[in-house]
Amino acid sequence: MKNTQYFAGIIQELNGVLEEKYRKIHAWSQEEFRDYIQTYAGPLGRMKKLNPQELKEYGVVVGLDGSVNRLGGAYPHYVELYRALAMSTQGHSSSVEEIYTPLLEEGVDQEEEGDQKDQDDRKRRLAEIEMKTAIQYMKTQPVDYLMMDGGLIRYRMYSNLWEEFTQTALERDVVTFGVIKDIKTAILGQGDQTRGLYDREILFGQLKAGDVIYIDDKKNKKVPSGLTSAFLKSSKEIQVVGLDLLKEQESQMEKVCNLVYTLTPEGGRGVPLWIDIVDHEVKITDQEMEALFESYMDRDLFHRLFVSERDLRRL
């Protein structure tokens, strides 16, 4: 058995440093915390659970998520399968699938350049296929609320279809929002006691289920990208989740927060159950990936190009 006790001292030292770093905010009273939130983020509110009739009045709610899985070894000898899925709570679904391998790319002379280029492009390819799926769904199927897994800012950053996507949503009156499981913002870390801290660190354990913070546009760095935002405590999960909404639809923020709160299980991870269902459906597992290539690609070609030394050890 490996001896890992030599880590004990440095972990205990790290624990002490981190306890001191967060000591001041841990000592806040509820009143002090709420005053701080309203000063550095925006107004606090309460969400409500919708009854069945109120939920029905929202119309067609659609969840959208994307997935990518990779088979092979180091650059350029691997292949990736991309899939995005839009699925309504009424049972209709639409998906887009794509395949990518650097072996078909031209113009990359050095391995390092190829690695960096591919890392940058992977986010773009995933954002692009999700935007294609969303646009396709909005143009062909009824939808009133489109719920994305993750923040909307990444589509603005990585997809050339962002303008078409937002235009389609606004023209067809589709309320479009993203639910962020792991917030990475630092809106609240501006005070003397919190400078340099991230929002998830400051908000940890501070809100009650049903609480919402409506982020003031003056404090929100996403506003120039056409988005408005909120933090939600939508379940008993100790962490909060984030929410992005198109700026043009900000009048819908309270309704969207109530929808997310209603669709999220009380004991869940803080995100609507429907997002988890779509996430499960869209995922391409390792086993599925291997089975597809073993069935539909020449075996010699497959082993020559896409079976790594690590794969051989596992096999």
Characterize the biggest β-sheet: 9 strands, mixed
- Which value, in Å, is the CA radius of gyration? 23 Å
Kindly state the number of beta strands: 9
Query: What's the overall geometry?
Result: globular
The DSSP helix count reads: 13
The average pLDDT value, as a whole number, equals 91
Strand content: 15-25%
What is the N-to-C succession of helices and strands?
HHHEHEEEHEHHEHEEEHHHHH
What is the CA–CA distance across the termini? 25 Å
Q: Runs with pLDDT <50, length 5+?
A: none
Helix content: 40-55%
Q: What would you call the structural class?
A: alpha+beta
**Main sheet: strand order:** 1-7-8-9-6-5-2-3-4
Q: Could you describe the 3D structure shown?
A:
With 315 residues, the chain is an alpha+beta fold. It is 42% helix and 19% strand. It is built from 13 helices and 9 strands. It has helices at 8-21, 23-26, 30-40, 52-56, 111-140, 153-158, 162-171, 199-203, 253-263, 273-282, 286-296, 299-306, 309-314, and strands at residues 44-46, 61-72, 78-88, 93-100, 145-149, 175-180, 211-214, 227-232, 241-246. Strands 1-7-8-9-6-5-2-3-4 form a 9-stranded mixed sheet, with helices on both faces. Strand 8 (227-232) and strand 9 (241-246) form a beta hairpin. The mean pLDDT is 91.
Structure in a nutshell:
The chain is an alpha+beta fold and 315 residues long. The chain is built from 13 helices and 9 strands. It has helices at residues 8-21, 23-26, 30-40, 52-56, 111-140, 153-158, 162-171, 199-203, 253-263, 273-282, 286-296, 299-306, 309-314, and strands spanning 44-46, 61-72, 78-88, 93-100, 145-149, 175-180, 211-214, 227-232, 241-246.
